[in-house]
Amino acid sequence: MRKITLADRSPTIVLDATASTPLYKQLYEGLRGAVLTGQLKTGARLPSTRAFAAELSISRATVQLAFEQLIAEGYLQGHTGSGTFVASTFPPESVVGASHNASPGQSGNVDRTISQQAKAWIEARAFFPPRRIVGQGASRAFSTGFPDTDAFPHKTWHRLLMRSWRRMQHDSLGYHHAAGYLPLREAIAGYLATARGVRCTAEQVIIVNGSQQGIDLAIRVLLDPGESVWIEDPGYPGVRGALQGAGMHMVPIPLDAEGLVVQIGIERAPEACMVFVTPSHQFPLGMPMSLTRRLNLLEWARSANAWILEDDYDSEFRYIGHPLAALQGLDTASRVIYLGTFSKVLFPALRLGYLVVPPYLVDAFVSAHLFTDMHLPLLEQIALAAFIDEGHFVRHIRRMRQLYSERQATLVDLARQKLAGRLDLRPAEAGMHLIGWLPGDQDDVQVARAAARASVDVSPLSLLTLEEKLRPGILLGYTSVGEEEMLQGIERLDSVL
Fold first, then answer.
1. For 419-482, where are the alpha helices, taking DSSP H only?
2. Where does the pLDDT of residue 110 fall: very low under 50, low under 70, confident under 90, or very high at 90 and above?
């Protein structure tokens, strides 16, 4: 180690010849840090390069390299015939003297830290269902919203990815349309017309980075801060966080057996500018919205000049009869923004979803998309377009519908055998989770925490409500859980309850 102390109360510069960082870089960083922290005062004169080199037993060229970099970046000033000085124009110590690793709150001279929007996001994050992150352990019983990725046709997807890469022309590596890859938008429009009753053209389809970005984009384009939005209570926490972060006024609307109670929404906030609904399979309670309610909601949106954001998050997985048609197909006034995702149908890491917007809103949505993330990666879009066009998508949905139906039946059977009297779990006609109802004196949040300690993931129903007081319950996802893992999860939940 080579050291030099520049002056009284000045820093000691330490150089290590065995380190991988070049000596000139070490000297540069030591001097730069001394200037930033105020240890080297504005206008202070530094030793000559010759004296520096002699003191540290390094070449003069090494010192000159460090000085030249510091002069170029404005930390030092060189005066011919006078020497080298700490720049006189450098900000005072009150600005740069605090540690760069300290938080703004620790520095004592910063009035604000993060935005109100960020604070709202942090607050809302507490209500998100537990999710296993890649590298932090696999999905376990009974995480919600997870498809069975083991049953995904990996070989087919790999083949399509490789073929898509080979077929990409040289100019395909440049920028692309913000709305997304046109053949994929055409494939989605065709699928939605036949499977979901959605009326649209490919030009109305906008590819987004999953449903959460779609929600955020719709809020940015259609709403101004402070405007009122109806939300289902209980409902999806993702929209809650997006609305809180955007500074919207949320109006919770209760549900009954027919879905969102439109009349209560009209009574509470007739001036609302948007409503967020999951009409095909309400999250989390599971009922579909009746035709009467759908028509009432559409009439209110038309008369109030409001928007309907329809989240069709898992409509493919209906186990009795055919999937219910989308609300968008009934819309004659172009008030519905339709939202879909491939995360729950294929696999979460794909991060591809889509919006279907009325024709006169396409330009606004594309422009907003352009200034948020330009466009999404192309390779996966090309592969997904082929996956849909060649029939793999529909076949995969058909297989998963059968598999998930069997898993739901297994879960209900095991719960009846092991948890009778402590957890009321009943079959549902659709979806990827069931609600297990607890005795009225139970705290579902405490149950969920105890289950997590027993390596079981369940989501407390009470955290998904704003005003409604429901019987305590927990959400149990079953689509990604094999029979053996399901049995182990039930046994652990048995010990918890």
1. 444-453
2. very low
Residue 43 in domain? yes
Query: Model pTM?
Result: 0.79
User: Is 114 among the domain residues?
Assistant: no
304 shares a domain with 209: yes
Q: How many CB atoms lie within 10 A of CB 161?
A: 17
Helix 49-56 vs helix 60-72: crossing angle, to nearest 10: 130
- Per-position DSSP letters for 319-363, written without gaps between them: -SSSPPPPGGGG-SSS-EEEEEESTTTT-GGG--EEEE--GGGHH
Question: Is residue 175 predicted with pLDDT exceeding 90?
Answer: no
Q: Are strands 307-311 and 76-79 parallel, antiparallel or unpaired?
A: unpaired
| Same domain, yes or no: 407 and 384 | no
DSSP labels, 46-96: EPPHHHHHHHHT--HHHHHHHHHHHHHTTSEEEETTTEEEE-TTSPPHHHH
For residue 138, what is the enclosing H or E element?
none
385 & 413 share domain: no
pLDDT tens column, 414-435: 999 999 999 999 999 999 999 9
Quickly tell me which residue has 């129903």 as its tokens.
461
Domain encompassing residue 242: 154-391
**Same-domain check for residues 385 and 399:** no
453-487 per-position pLDDT tens digit: 999 999 999 999 999 889 999 999 999 999 999 99
**Total domains in the fold of the chain:** 3
